């Protein structure tokens, strides 16, 4: 079970990422799923039953610390910082634009926003794979699914890296694709920060 994360679910969470081989995650239809959304999958590896955190800062509006082609919310105290573009911040087809640091909220990890360059494959799984090939030489157990980020068509991936679970979501906007990634020091930090990721995913939208 999550050690430091409160979850809202109809059924109790019965396993952690480290126990994925002991039970098959329950899958139920999503009542409000769009045509490209995935079913709701409780438990590992997606943990869809985890409730979003309370919203604090809005990331992405024009004039904010990190203007983007979409907006989303992060919890209070998470620190948003734009990243200057450059080859040092590139991984495959992805260019790092923004880091959202969880340390002020007591966690060790980041939400990061990447721009997917126009030359990247249109197939979102190939895009994620090319990113992982350069971002992490130790990524394994990758799983994928189409989903929604707010009302926006998206494609989600999860993988493990040295035994720790990671997450990414590629979001389509009229100005191109963005990718949001979540990574922590270990599984405990990942699980503690997952509500922040769920908040960002559920609150994503186009700028007003």
Provide a quick synopsis of the model.
By secondary structure, this protein is α+β, with helices and mostly antiparallel strands.
What is the total tally of β strands?
Answer: 12
Output the radius of gyration.
Answer: 16 Å
Order of SSEs: EEEEEEEEHEEEEH
Choose one word for the global shape.
globular
Low-confidence stretches: 1-36
Distance between the termini: 38 Å
Helix content: 10-25%
User: Structural class, please?
Assistant: alpha+beta
* Main beta-sheet annotation: 8 strands, antiparallel
Oligomer: single chain
- What is the count of helical runs? 2
The overall pLDDT, averaged over residues, is 83
What share of residues are in beta strands? 25-35%
